[in-house]
Amino acid sequence: QVSLVESGGALVQPGASLRLSCVVSGSIFQIYSMGWYRQAPGKQRELVATITGGGSTSYSEAVKGRFTISRDNARNIVYLLMNDLKDEDTAVYYCNKNTGPWAWGRGTQVTVSL
Fold first, then answer.
1. What is the rounded distance in angstroms from the CA atom of residue 92 to the CA atom of residue 37?
2. What is d(CA 95, CA 100) in angstroms, rounded to the nearest whole number?
3. Stretch 85-112: mean pLDDT
4. Model confidence pLDDT, tens digit, residues 44-81
5. What are the distances in angstroms from CA 29 to CA 17, 50, 103, 107?
């Protein structure tokens, strides 16, 4: 059974940076495209960043230029570096593979507020 454990969320002020981590266990991690998703209160979960097994990346328009997704295939970890955080980035952040997602983890809360 695959386990996803996200961490690194915090309460920060606008303009701050955070790095989220997601440890994936129980699967052949490196063959899958992975994504970071977020869900704000009252909204649907949305995909914000994707990284293929080979390291190609893509981003939603909302985060392009501010967020960077990366992965460490040897350690089964996906990262999300978030710079210049804005109030609208407040959400619970999750990682998962892009197609046929595994069971979701608990996520990690990011709150951007003065």
1. 8
2. 13
3. 95
4. 999 999 999 999 999 999 999 999 999 999 999 999 99
5. 27, 14, 15, 18
The two beta strands, 46-51 and 34-39, are antiparallel
Q: How many residues does the chain have?
A: 114
Residue written as tokens 């990284």? 51
**pLDDT at 100 exceeding the cut of 90:** no
Classify residue 64 by its DSSP letter: T
Across the chain, the runs of DSSP E, i.e. the strands, are 3-7, 11-12, 18-25, 34-39, 46-51, 57-59, 67-72, 77-82, 91-97, 108-112
Q: In terms of C-beta distances under 8 Å and separation of at least 24 residues, what long-range contacts does 67-70 make, across chains too?
A: 67/36, 69/34, 69/35, 69/36
Cα–Cα dist 16/84, whole Å: 5
> Which amino acid belongs to residue 51?
I
CA separation for the pair 80, 60 (Å, rounded) = 13
